[in-house]
Each structure stands twice: as C-alpha cells, then as structure tokens.
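User: Just a sanity check before I run the rest of the batch. Below are the structure tokens for the first item. I only need the designed sequence back.
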C-alpha cells in the first residue's frame, strides 16, 4: 500500500469530554457452555459487534487481556434498569459487576465502536481507514484517513490526517515461485505450492497490515483450518471487521501465525 506525498495538514476536532462519573463499564464474558459450543472463530468479537449494532447507547471493545470477553461502557442509569444484563444472560454472556470508567477505557471503546459503525464505507487497514467497500478491487488511488482519538478528564479530541493511497493486492507472481512448481500449479487444478518453493514469502496481511509469511498456495481451503468453505471465510471477515472480500477464482494464500 502506497500513499501520495504532500498530504493535507492534520485536522483537530474537539468535543466535550464525557462525564465519566455518570458512566460504568462491565466485562461481558461468554459462558463456558457457549464458548465450547461455538463453531465461530473469535466468538467474543461477534458478540461484541452484535451488542454495538443493536444497542445504540453503549460503546464497547473486545477485551484483549481477558479471553472470550469484551468491555461495555454505558450510563449508570441504563445499568440500573437491568435490561442489558437480562439480554446478556439470554444470549449466553456473563456480566461482571460495574466499575468506574477510566479515560483509557472510554477511548478504547469509543474508537472500536466508531470504526465498527463506519465500516464498510470506511475500512480499517493498518493505521488507515480506507474509503469504499470495493477498495480491494480499485486500480487507482482511494481516499484514506488516519484517525486518533484522545480522551481525558478535561477534553476529548479527534486527530485526522487525510491522504490518498493505492492498495496493491497480492498476486501469485509476486511470490517468486520456482519455475517448475509455478508451471505445474498453473497447469493442474489440484496442484499446490508449499513454502519451500516460495522465493518471496512475506506479505502484508489484512486488516492489521502486519507482515505474515506465506506457507502455501492452493485452490482450496486447508482441511485442518477453521473454515470449511470460502463462503464461511467471507462471512467471518464481514462479521468481524465488515470487510467485503473479493471473489477468488485463482488461489487462496495461507498465512502462518508468525509476524515480523
């Protein structure tokens, strides 16, 4: 992904800070039964996003320090009604007792909720939000914004940097596959390419844009993977990050878990 030079200067937008002592935060955790029965990958993210899109008065974020859980910030008055806790119990979530909301917690929940709600019109790709649900198929430059949110007791502001970027999808030819293996792969539908035949294995992985190592290329999903079909894989991306994956007629590239 490349951005154009001479991007516009930074824009700061200020807003009234939240009244934190009128809010509370609870940890919503998947019950053991739901966690064990769920066939979904990252089920806590699916539940977190379900709450975000169906409860307009809350903000939330997955808990990366607690397994199978997410944080929900709400007004104390909402918590006292018991409505949200009853809903949590109904869908297999266990809610902790409420605690005070720190600026850092509010900031994390606000950012995650905002990014979730503006997708797929704006898609998180590394440090950028890229405009358009079809940006993966664009051949030219597309609009992009870098968003930072700062929250403290005295103020809340949004920092925006705008530019245009060109997103370059990975092609098989980019992997520098050794000649014989590449020829066989192109000739035979069921042929596969393993890591030993890949000369340039590193690529950027959506949505974090961190580097991952390509460990194989095939036209079918690995049998030992979490997804049974490409349709399942597309559904996972849509439900967890609102990313609309393009149709793949050629290959699926498997990424290892090792990141640079």
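Assistant: Here's the designed sequence for the first item:
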């Amino acid at each position: 992904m490349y951005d154009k030079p001479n991007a516009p200067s930074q824009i700061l937008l200020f807003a009234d800070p939240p009244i934190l002592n009128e809010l509370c935060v609870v940890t919503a955790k998947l019950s053991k039964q739901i966690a064990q029965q769920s066939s979904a990958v990252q089920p806590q993210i699916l539940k977190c996003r379900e709450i975000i899109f169906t409860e307009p008065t809350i903000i939330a974020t997955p808990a990366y320090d607690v397994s199978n859980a997410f944080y929900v910030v709400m007004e104390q008055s909402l918590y006292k009604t018991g409505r949200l806790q009853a809903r949590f119990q109904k869908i297999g979530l266990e809610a902790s007792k409420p605690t005070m909301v720190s600026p850092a917690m509010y900031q994390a929940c606000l950012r995650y909720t905002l990014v979730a709600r503006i997708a797929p019109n704006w898609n998180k790709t590394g440090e950028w939000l890229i405009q358009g649900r079809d940006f993966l198929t664009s051949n030219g430059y597309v609009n992009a914004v870098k968003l930072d949110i700062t929250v403290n007791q005295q103020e809340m502001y949004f920092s925006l940097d705008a530019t245009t970027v060109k997103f370059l999808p990975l092609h098989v030819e980019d992997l520098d596959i050794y000649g014989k293996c590449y020829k066989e792969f192109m000739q035979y539908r069921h042929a596969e390419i393993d890591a030993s035949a890949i000369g340039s294995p590193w690529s950027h992985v959506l949505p974090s844009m961190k580097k991952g190592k390509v460990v194989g290329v095939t036209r079918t999903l690995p049998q030992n993977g979490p997804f049974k079909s490409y349709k399942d894989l597309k559904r996972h991306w849509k439900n967890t990050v609102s990313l609309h994956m393009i149709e793949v007629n050629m290959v699926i590239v498997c990424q290892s878990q090792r990141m640079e």
